[in-house]
Amino acid sequence: MTMSMKALLIETCTERPVIALSIDDTIHTSYLPEGHKSSSLLMPALQKLLKQYSVQPHELDLIAVGSGPGSYTGIRVGVAVAKVLSYTHKIPLVSISSLYGLIPDHDGPYAAFIDARIGGAYFILAERKGETINYLTDPDVADINTLKQLLIDVPTFVTPASEQLQKRFEGIDADWKWIETAPNPTQLLHIAKQKHAAGDFSIDGSVDILYLRKTQAEIEREAKENPIV
Questions:
Q1: Fold of 103-180
Q2: pLDDT in tens, 19-58
Q3: 3-class SS string, the chain
Q4: Which of 71, 134, 156, 225 would staple 36 via disulfide (CB 3.0–4.6 Å)?
């Protein structure tokens, strides 16, 4: 039985950022514009969502935040906002890998992916049976060649951005179905409430960030902004 509470989700790690507010098990969702430029839009979107449903920040019972893997900037922005809210109002804070929220729209085994660029891909193996998701592995990272062999019999791949990953998986005879979707807020909030009930949370704003790596574009941009003299 799911515990009734006011819970806020902040998930900005992937190209498809989402925030959600759970009130008495009814989830109200707001999707931010796609891409990794949501930093300036996050706080106004959060304020709008809370105001729309007449919830003050201090009334929240739980804050859940996506802790990666994903964009260095996206992770940092979402986690920073969640930490401030948690620390300021002494609200329990739960961190969740974004991979747990990438789920297909049909039953069966699947692999969820987030691109690690030159590092390969972050992934998790799972199986959907109705509304139940059984996770078969923990989040991990592997090079593409290893993944091609490991996942050859997995029928469905789920990712927030499939174009580049699909190109990297070319050259192998496998009938994979690709699904491009945002992390599912209902699933992430479900896991967050389970972790909260088990005492797996912080009240000092601490978060274990997963795979905090900068993309090449972010590295190059920071180099231009902070040249070595």
A1: Nucleotidyltransferase; domain 5 (3.30.420)
A2: 999 998 899 999 998 875 666 799 999 999 999 999 999 9
A3: CCCCCEEEEEECCCCCCEEEEEECCEEEEEECCCCCCCHHHHHHHHHHHHHHCCCCHHHCCEEEEECCCCCHHHHHHHHHHHHHHHHHHCCCEEEECHHHHCCCCCCEEEEEEEECHHHCEEEEEEEEECCEEEECCCCEEECHHHHHHHCCCCCEEEECCCHHHHHHCCCCCCCCEEEECCCCHHHHHHHHHHHHHCCCCECCCCCCCCCCCCCHHHHHHHHHHCCCC
A4: 71
Cβ distance 20 to 96 under 8 Å?
A: no
Query: Are 215 and 115 a contacting pair, CB within 8 Å?
Result: no
Please, what CATH class does the domain formed by 6-98+183-225 belong to? alpha beta
Task: Please tell me the distance from the alpha carbon of residue 223 to that of residue 38, in angstroms, as a whole number.
Answer: 21
**103: confidence class by pLDDT, cuts 50, 70, 90:** very high
Q: Whole-angstrom Cα distance, residue 159 to residue 165?
A: 9
Residues of the chain with CATH 3.30.420.40: 6-98+183-225, 103-180
pTM: 0.88
